[in-house]
């Protein structure tokens, strides 16, 4: 693969304008149903949890309710665990791992911690199996003041009233083969930059906050997930996706400066998970279970080390 990978939208070296973004949008196709696959599962939880619509997206003729699941026994005296998924809509296990956690494990934390779960932050992208929203914006670089992404702005408004009480935030993601075949070339084309080929790590890993690292917390998540699926090894440079591996399966990003979802609060404990659903060593069921196990381990550690 050459440094300037071909992408069918735009002119190499020139950032996209409105015409290129419109051309990109015209190529996007709905592949699955947010209502059938996500909303229906959230509705099935209403007998046990509170469900709130915290916003609504309108893209063309499409309208998407943004739904959050909350502990029914919410107690302001308790800390809050924030669980987010589907910031990148194509990352399927982030969405369904969050829902699996609520369905199978959330009841275990009643009376211990308040749960706030936003399982599918980007429903338009979920349906189109894409990383960006309809405006060719990456929501996971947009968690900042005056956000250009409605998805990110809506979550920040949801979290704001409880932000000071958030003890732990776990943001569920995937790294897929399409990161390298589609999304990174598209990003380079959109921004008018040369495409630099990279590798896709085979396995689960987490991203700690470089500004406030919590190595024991990250290791607890890794150890729990290792019982479900394999952990990504470092590459020949001692890195995962271009970042130094600071412990098995752990890299660090500056979460807030990068506008990442995991930096949306000042929680003491925060992490971004990444699974690899395209691995021959993993199944979709394992990926969902790994995400749910990561959430449980994160909350357990946070409660034990308050």
TrEMBL record:
Peptidase M14 domain ranges (all copies): 30-306
SUPFAM superfamilies from the UniProt entry: Zn-dependent exopeptidases (SSF53187)
InterPro entries per record: Peptidase_M14
CDD domains named among the record's database cross-references: M14_REP34-like
Family affiliation: Belongs to the peptidase M14 family.
Protein name as annotated: M14 family metallocarboxypeptidase
């Amino acid at each position: 693969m050459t440094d300037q990978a071909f992408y069918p939208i735009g002119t190499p070296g020139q950032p996209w304008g409105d015409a290129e973004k419109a051309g990109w949008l015209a190529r996007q196709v709905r592949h699955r149903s947010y209502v059938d696959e996500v909303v229906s599962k959230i509705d099935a939880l209403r007998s046990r949890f509170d469900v709130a619509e915290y916003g609504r997206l309108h893209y063309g003729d499409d309208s998407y309710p943004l739904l959050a699941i909350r502990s029914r026994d919410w107690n302001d005296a308790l800390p809050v665990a924030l669980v987010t998924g589907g910031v990148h809509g194509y990352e399927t296990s982030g969405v369904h791992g969050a829902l699996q956690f609520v369905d199978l494990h959330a009841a275990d934390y009643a009376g211990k911690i308040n749960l706030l779960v936003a399982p599918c932050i980007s429903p338009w992208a979920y349906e189109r199996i894409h990383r960006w929203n309809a405006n060719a914006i990456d929501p996971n670089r947009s968690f900042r003041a005056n956000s250009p992404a409605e998805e990110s702005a809506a979550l920040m408004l949801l979290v704001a009233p409880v932000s000071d009480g958030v003890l732990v935030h776990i943001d569920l993601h995937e790294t897929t083969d399409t990161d390298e075949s589609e999304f990174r070339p598209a990003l380079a084309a959109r921004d008018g930059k040369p495409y630099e080929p990279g590798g896709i790590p085979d396995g689960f890993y987490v991203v700690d906050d470089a500004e406030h690292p919590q190595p024991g917390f990250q290791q607890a998540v890794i150890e729990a997930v290792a019982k479900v699926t394999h952990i990504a090894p470092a590459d020949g440079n001692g890195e995962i996706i271009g970042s130094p591996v600071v412990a098995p399966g752990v890299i660090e990003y500056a979460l807030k400066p990068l506008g990442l979802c995991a930096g949306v609060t000042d929680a003491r404990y925060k992490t971004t998970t990444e699974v690899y659903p395209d691995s021959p060593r993993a199944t979709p069921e394992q990926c969902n279970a790994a995400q749910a196990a990561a959430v449980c381990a994160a909350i357990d550690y946070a409660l034990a080390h308050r």
